[in-house]
Input
Amino acid sequence: MTSRVVVCFLFLLLLRGTAAPASLQAQSAPFSVQTNELDDSRYPRQVTFRLAVDAETSTAASIAQATLHYDVSRASCLEAAAAVPVAVTGDSLAWTWEMVRSGNPPPGATVTWSWTLTDADGRSLTTPPQSHTFSDGRYTWQTVEADNLKLHWYEGNVGPGLLDAAVSGLDRLESDMGIQLQDDVNLFIYGSSEDMRDVVLYIQEWAGGVAFSDYNVILMGIPPSLAGTWGQDVVPHELAHLVVAQYGRSCVGGSRPNWLEEGLAVYAEGEPSPDIEADIKRGMADSAFEPLRSLNGAFSAHGPEAGIAYSQSYSTVAYLLETYGREPMQQLILTLAAGQSTDAALEAVYGFNVDGLEQEWRAHMGLPSRDIPPTPTAINPAAIPTIIPEGLPVSLPTPPAAAATAVPPATAPAANPGICNLGLVPLLLMGLIVFKRRRDWSKTGEH
Ligand SMILES: [Zn+2]
Output
């Protein structure tokens, strides 16, 4: 009993990273650990934890039982630490984490592990926690840093310029919305979307960028030739998704409507581009704007409608921010995170629902008001929390800069409104958002 208490105490001490006195360790831990390492040569498909004890030492015990504890640092509503019993076969132990089953944590994520070894007499030792940060060893990475931000790249000299774009985007989010980055972010800039996709299992073949908001990691494929143009928009856009996801993280299944999610991200890009202004002009001339309510869910991924949906979302969010200021916007995001429906959250903060917002925005734009049919009774599944499958990346794929046009729309998941729907977040906690419009794809065609 006493030794068990000591072991528990030791375990707590060790988990806190405090070195226990060697003599105390020796009494309760008759193992002589020779190697304790993580083999990541097959990452992202699998990694293997290996441990060996020295059986030659006269005082050393043989392992009777072994448990591996491991945990990947991430912001999560659920405790995701794993403890796996490992089969004992002599003095060397190995356990392989098959990421092809669970999905892989992205580069930049850190795993911490320890082993608990028990001998035939019930005495045990828990090894001090060790950490390993996953990295994509195929490339030689360079890094530039700003506050809370590390940007890594390997091709060309794109780092400093893209870091500037990221910092400008963060400044806009802070000054206009009062929303700050809460945890450090790692951005990995790949030379192409193909290079990027190779390090993420189960990523859509059209994806050009992925934001793992739980891990505070963004992976993007930005060819050096596009870093000064497309890259300047796409970096703050993706970063905005991550910052808003941090700020509005919900453990009760709350989610943001797509017009708000994408509108905020486009807003973070900066002054509206000529493409956005052209979309808005066309929307006004052709009465081509969608009912705002229909933009709660997925946008059309292709064609002119997609461009108008993003531009309309941007314009609506800009209207809210410029008319009512930043505090109500913060309240809206937090009220949605608390599990309120979009209508209820808007009512609570601004005093109108989605239709009311649309009518105000239309009046502001000089458009005639629209006949709005009675709102159907909302079915709000937001209060149902969802289990996160362990290791599953929370990802926001975006279409690539260069390869998008090569993907036949019929096979691209982007064409499936269910996949690109932010409404999937409460179901899977895996939001797939398409944000780049036709204008981006035609833009890339110019290069
Ligand atoms: Zn987006």
Residues 273 and 429 are 31 Å apart (CA to CA).
